[in-house]
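lol ok so funny story. i was supposed to be doing the assay writeup but got distracted and ended up predicting the structure for this chain instead. priorities right. anyway since i did it might as well share w the group, maybe its usefull for someone
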Amino acid sequence: MSNKEKIPGLNREQILKHINIGTIILFVIIIYILFYVISYLGKSKLANYQVGESDIVDSIDGTGIILRDEDLVRTKKNGYVHFFVRDGSRVNKGGMVYTIDKTGAVQEFLQAKVDDGQTLSDEARDSIVSSLDSYCEGYEDNAFTDTYDLHKDVSYDLASYTDTILADNLKKIKKKIRKKYGKKSFKICKAEETGLVTFSSDGLENLKLKNVTPELFAVRARMEDLRSNEKLKKDTPVYRLVKGQRWRLAVPVSKEQYTHLKALKKDGKGTLQVTFKKDNFVCSAPYNCKKIGEDYYVVLLFNDYIQRYTDQRYLYVELVLSQSIGLKIPTSALVQKDVFEIPRYLLSAGGNSDQKNQVNVLGENKKGEKTLQQVEVSVYDKDEDEENVYIASDKLKEGMILTDLEMTETYSLDKTTALQGVYIINRGFTVFRPVVILERNQDYCIVDKDKSDIALYDRLILDSSSVDEGHIIY
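and the output, tada:
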């Protein structure tokens, strides 16, 4: 007998067999787990995208030149000029604008009235401080023109304040001048027409649309202040009178933009949304497309707001051609699916289903007898009110005949139609969902959230070319 203790009820062969089976099963499980982990780690990761809500704006940015009905008014005699109206104020025909005297005595008297105990009003001070703050916030070393504009704005504010003092005390001052210097010591100059008085000029008052050229934008004319304390000669420009409320803004555009705008006009879009970048004022304006020589322009037409920009010749604007609001998806996610368009009544429920997701294909057997084969299809509703729907199935081919269950009506499948859509992966595998695109650019598109078969926060494949429908993601 061996000295080794035996296990009661088990012989050597049984023990070895038991150990071998358990080891093999464990080994197989370990191999399976390792294979799964290695396969998962080595599997290329598919990028996905969560659907959000946004908009796409098709717009044109550019600097336009203002065309308006305006005259440059000149002095009719030599002398010193002093204004009695505010810059940008409206005067009626026959209204007093300024005085002119030969000796300068009246001017000295008026200036003394301005200086006598006068301080800047809160409104004038706030305007100057606002101009200085804006300049400091947007200061750039290479933008010297901004410094020029700042000097002009502050000078205008101060000069306008002086004019305001005189305008507010017009009757009292006129009486004192006549009493001290006599009625013939000065001449009151009145407006010959009704309009807006402004004390700046760039020499382009007679500019016509047909004379607009690219050179006018390359070398921009500057508004110069016409006000002066010096003695003026006869026929010297003294103020500019802007008449009426109608004005135009000619904005240069490319040939492609010009063609696009003409197409929009032809399709019935008669106005554009305009944003004036100077003060972020937004309005709508009718427009015309104009070719002048070899250059292209969009001409905006206005019947209001002329008083906002009387001291401007050039305005930087944004023109909104279209704006689409909806669900935002990347263009790389778009995919096309071939579908058939059929009448809605040809959809039927399967024998064991209450869902209308099958069609009946009419055929013949070897005996020449008519047969019906039910084929499961994916259904994409065009619209619940539409009589037709889109269907897709790998089993359907062009030329097949569909019929209703009673075989009273038939329908032949014509050529397929390409349906635009995306692959969503909410359930772990790719499913095609059609979308209706409202607007698109190179990177993104906006789809109609009511007519598209996707919803906010759906997840979809970022690159649709990397997968097919039914691809398992996880």
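The mean pLDDT is 82. The helical segments are 12-42, 105-115, 122-137, 144-168, 170-181, 215-218, 255-266.
back to the writeup now i swear
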